Amino acid sequence: MSATSDNTSGKSSGWIKSTCAYCGVGCGIEARPKTNGQLEIRGDHEHPANFGRLCSKGLALGETVIPDGRLLHPKIGGVRTDWNTALDHVAKSFEDVIKEHGPEAVAFYVSGQLLTEDYYVANKLMKGFIGSGNIDTNSRLCMSSTVAGHKRAFGSDTVPGCYSDLEQADMVVITGSNMAWCHPVLFQRLKAAKQQRPELKIVVIDPRATDTCAIADLHLPVKPGTDVALFNGLLSHLATSQKVDESYVRQHTEGFNQALMCAMEDGSDPATLARTLEVEQQDLKTFFDWYARTDKVVTLFSQGVNQSTSGADKVNSIINCHLATGRIGKPGSGPFSLTGQPNAMGGREVGGLANTLAAHMELDNEHHHGLVSEFWKTDSLTTKSGLKAIDLFDAIEDGRIKAVWIMATNPVVSLPDADKIQRALRNCPLVVVSDCIADTDTTRCADVLLPAQGWSEKSGTVTNSERRISRQRRLLPTPGEGKPDWWIMSEVAKRMGFGHAFDYLHEGDVFNEYVRMTGLDNSMVAGKTQRDLDLTGLADMSHRDYAGMAPQQWPLVQMDRKIEHKRLFADGRFFTPSGKAQFVAVRHRQPASRLSSDYPLSLNSGRIRDQWHTMTRTGLSARLGAHLPEPYVSVHPADAEVFGLTHGKVAALSNEWGYARIRVDVSERVNPGQLFMPIHWTGVMASAGRVCTLVSPDTDAISGQPEFKFTPVAIGPWEYQSEALLLSPGVIDTSDLDYWVRQKVAGGYLYRIASSETPKQLEARLKPHCLGLTASQGKQLDFASPSKGQFRFAVIDGIELKGCYLVAPNLQEQDLDWVQNLLHEPVNEMVQRSILTGIAEGKLARGKTVCACKQVGRNTIEQAIREGDLESVSQISECTGAGTGCGSCVPELQEILDESLAYSL
Ligand SMILES: Nc1nc2c(c(=O)[nH]1)N[C@H]1C(S)=C(S)[C@@H](COP(=O)(O)OP(=O)(O)OC[C@H]3O[C@@H](n4cnc5c(=O)[nH]c(N)nc54)[C@H](O)[C@@H]3O)O[C@H]1N2
Ligand SMILES: Nc1nc2c(c(=O)[nH]1)N[C@H]1C(S)=C(S)[C@@H](COP(=O)(O)OP(=O)(O)OC[C@H]3O[C@@H](n4cnc5c(=O)[nH]c(N)nc54)[C@H](O)[C@@H]3O)O[C@H]1N2
Ligand code: SF4
Ligand SMILES: [Mo]
Question: 273 C-alpha vs ligand 4 centroid, how far in Å?
């Protein structure tokens, strides 16, 4: 059948096709197990998301499937047990709570990193059989404003476009998205299109100057939270310059006049608008003019839009402009929400959010309720929406929820007011956590730990940003007793007496049930199904077909299963009761929290290029850790001066929610008054690097999505007397250290340490960590200059370095990146001299890693530029290999080149 590929297992010459574990681009990979248990990875040239390309994280997947730190066995109260006991315990405990306090007293908190099959089972169990709506997902933190915006405008949660629209557009607006780092392969596709057609206009709207700006014709560094005003300004401009497609608006939409009236109030006066947005009036005019005169426009958006107390309104303000110009459902046109997690979209399909049912049916729709009850053969289907993530954890804190099961997410790191989340979980009578990693901030709060299979062991499906469903295939055996998430939940369901509904033998059975569900009363009316999500073209797949299924974009309707409907709304008909799209009248609002004299700066947060969320997986790769190894706060030079901060020293941030201590990065990429901090560091990886302890729990009233991008904070220097780098083959006890960050390096861990104690006192603390590593025949290198506060110590066994440390009053002034590789290098005289003097010699001196794929350092690149008189990035790539892997470091290469050229002038 058309839905499957010719080769039914997805295999060719030992290569197995699967999908990348990380972002919503959903790149196809091919993997081949190596004899050492690792995986060889390459891009799948046939996959329509990436056509063979991969980014640094995708390329490093093979390094992250190592057994280090895996959760191997079920545990109750920290004690290993067998599956049967653990499952009985979970089922019985949930039943007891439900019996005594009702179904609203239990909850699931799940994740866009579950496969569709897992997600479907979770939702069916909680909403359909336990009978509570209390299942929410980290997609609440990620996509819920978009879901709300889509539903308000289209009557359905539909991303109308597809990736090729980026290549066909004549203008791409990128707002609130750092695609270069967060959706790198899609960014590369866009960049290639720009190179082919330089007239393709690219506008980036982001308070920060990110690497995404590298391909922009125009960057609007808007004041945080002002997107509604900007797009209202655009809508006003479109109206006054007669660029509204009146016949489209008349035939296919409703509510234009009211939306325009609101828009005019915010945005009809360019001078006022420019002041609100804090951008140049001329730049605004340029943006508006380009948008007005270009027919094919795609607007890409992501967390700078969604994660806001006006997130849903921001989404609708963007959609309003596309509706007004009829630029939707057409090649090269449309609003395009970039999904974050690999299966953010799949979760939305099967109703992962507390306020939706499966298969894009709605909880508050009686007809849908009836259909789903009958299909699942249940009388218990909840009629009430459950609590959204933030409210759900409030209910855990105040004791309304007494049992929670967390799967595939790390809320103690990723939810706002994270210290409260930790307190809530510590006080909750039953916390069950399913994860593949043993030690996370969240597993530390668990009563029951259930080992889940990891990415390379699981089998099922994920859906990417362009609604394309791809197979994730089992590549490696599971270490320990890890099980698929759908299996774990089904076993608990059986023990709760719901066996008839959860009797799945195979993930393909779950998929098939879900596919059939999308066809429930979803027949064609005038050539269009009643709901957007229809997969019935896949309904008669056998297990064999499922095993070999090639990527499929939905809708995939039974009747014309050969046709790929790449774009929705091409016919101008929507899923609202009237069939017309709705303009939503929106007004600009300030973020909920206000700056004050106590907390005068706004804290923005987001991602870095080579790490994934809470680092439980990318943190296992030494290569990925090298790019930005330490949590940091970016601060504008003017603020650095006002607040007494020095680049490379440590800052203390605080507000009413929490505090953090992280490195200072003085940078003009952030505007005055604003700070930026990455989201990735956890309590496992650093002493005080979790951004979410500082993030306020304000949410969008419509979507429930938290405002992660704007929290008022105070900042100041954190004074220390000494610093150290310590290399150790294993994890060390850090409980007596003030400031530390752990980084995975080849052969062990590198600790970056700072202390309020003197160098001598710090060295006295560190020495036992290293002495413990000495083999009887080991040799010690010991250098001490107490007057300068410098101590260097190493333990060597033959040609192997066992461990070492360097202590000084201030290490940041030196280039110490070379220390990262020492556990890996044979210890020759040069290495010994480098350790004793603290200064890299010979090939150790290659500088900070710029290209993670090819491991090329900054010094090497600068030297090549100098010595070879290089003038272009391609020449740098040719000479050093940098930029020839995934290409994500190309903007940085350009920056180094620009700096070197400016210096040589
Ligand atoms: N490397 C990497 N890639 C990832 C992930 C990862 O962890 N690491 N995670 C994935 C996931 S789950 C997600 S959700 C996506 C997120 O992908 P993105 O949304 O691209 O990533 P963020 O860095 O969170 O935020 C995007 C930008 O929004 C900007 N911003 C802040 N406030 C505003 C504002 O008021 N208006 C506008 N217009 N912009 C603003 C920020 O400065 C930031 O540059 O990335 C996915 N891809
Ligand atoms: N300040 C701030 N906070 C944010 C954001 C922000 O921009 N700023 N962004 C938010 C967004 S958009 C997101 S998506 C979240 C992400 O935040 P989280 O979801 O908390 O982050 P992850 O590290 O991806 O957590 C996934 C967990 O699941 C485990 N895991 C991986 N695969 C599996 C599996 O197959 N089964 C099971 N059971 N476990 C598995 C991993 O080991 C890990 O512990 O963070 C949110 N928090
Ligand atoms: S862009 Fe990178 S992280 Fe995202 S799916 Fe593709 S390879 Fe994976
Ligand atoms: Mo996300």
Answer: 30
Residue 226 CA to residue 589 CA, distance in Å, equals: 8
Confidence tier at 848 by pLDDT (50, 70, 90): confident
Answer yes or no: is the C-beta of 205 below 6 A from any ligand 1 atom.
Answer: yes
Going by the DSSP 8-state scheme, the letter that residue 749 receives in this structure is: E
What is the distance between the terminal CA atoms of the chain, rounded to a whole angstrom? 64
- What tokens were used for 478? 């599971």
Residues 292 and 240 sit within 8 Å (Cβ to Cβ): no
Residues with C-beta less than 6 Å from any ligand 2 atom: 111, 113, 138, 141-142, 303, 307, 340-341, 407-411, 413-414, 434-437, 440, 452, 454, 458, 485, 605-606, 613-614, 616, 679, 691-692, 695, 708
What average pLDDT does this structure show over 93-101?
98
Cis before 74? omega within 30: no
State the pLDDT confidence band at 60, using cuts at 50, 70 and 90: very high
Q: If pLDDT is split at 50, 70 and 90, which confidence band does 825 have?
A: confident
Residue 696 neighbours by CB under 8 Å, 6+ apart: 416, 417, 592, 593, 655, 657, 707, 711, 712
DSSP state of 671: P
CA of 315 from ligand 1 middle (Å) equals: 15
CA-CA-CA-CA torsion for 833, 834, 836, 837, nearest 10 degrees? Answer: 110
- pLDDT tier for residue 10 given thresholds of 50, 70 and 90: low
- What residues does 602 pair with on adjacent strands? 674, 712
Are residues 430 and 107 in contact, defined by beta-carbon separation less than 8 angstroms? no
Tokens representing residue 510 in the block: 């779950």
Place of tokens 């200072």: 664
Q: Which amino acid is at 638?
A: A
Question: Could you tell me which of 718, 707, 719, 717 has the C-alpha nearest to residue 602?
Answer: 707
Report the percentage of the chain scoring pLDDT > 70: 97
Rg of the chain, C-alpha, whole Å: 27
* Pair 633, 675: CB distance under 8 Å: yes
The answer to whether the CB of 679 falls within 8 A of the CB of 607 is: yes
Which residue's entry shows tokens 């709300």?
148
Q: What is the dihedral of CA 267, 273, 276, 278, to 10 degrees?
A: 140
Which DSSP string corresponds to 21-88? SS-TT--EEEEEE-TTS-EEEEE-TT-TTTTT---HHHHTGGGG-S-TTB--S-EETTEE--HHHHHH
For the purposes of burial, counting CB atoms within 10 Å of the CB of 757, is it exposed (0-12), middle (13-18) or buried (19 or more)? middle
The three-state secondary structure class of 246 is: helix
**Biggest distance spanned by C-alpha atoms of the chain:** 86
Least confident span in 33-37, 587-591, 737-741, 893-897: 33-37
CA nearest to 16, candidates 595, 517, 459? 459
Hey, which bits of 261-361 come out as E strands?
A: 297-301, 334-337
Atom of ligand 2 nearest to the CA of 114: 35
> Minimal CA–CA distance to 765: which of 746, 791, 786?
791
Instruction: Write the DSSP symbol of residue 641.
Output: H
- The residue whose C-alpha atom lies closest to atom 4 belonging to ligand 3 is 23
Distance CA 494, CA 503 (A): 8
Predicted confidence band of residue 775 (pLDDT cuts 50, 70, 90): low
Residue 739 one-letter amino acid? Y
Q: How many CB atoms lie within 10 A of CB 467?
A: 26
- Pair of tokens at residue 485: 């998430």
Residue 120 in tokens:
């479907």
DSSP at 606: E
Indicate whether this model's pTM tops 0.85.
Answer: yes
Enter the DSSP assignment of 157: -
Question: Which residues is 137 bridged to in the sheet?
Answer: 110
CA distance 348 to 770: 50
pLDDT at 257: 98
For residue 718, which phi and psi values (nearest 5 degrees)?
Answer: -105, 115
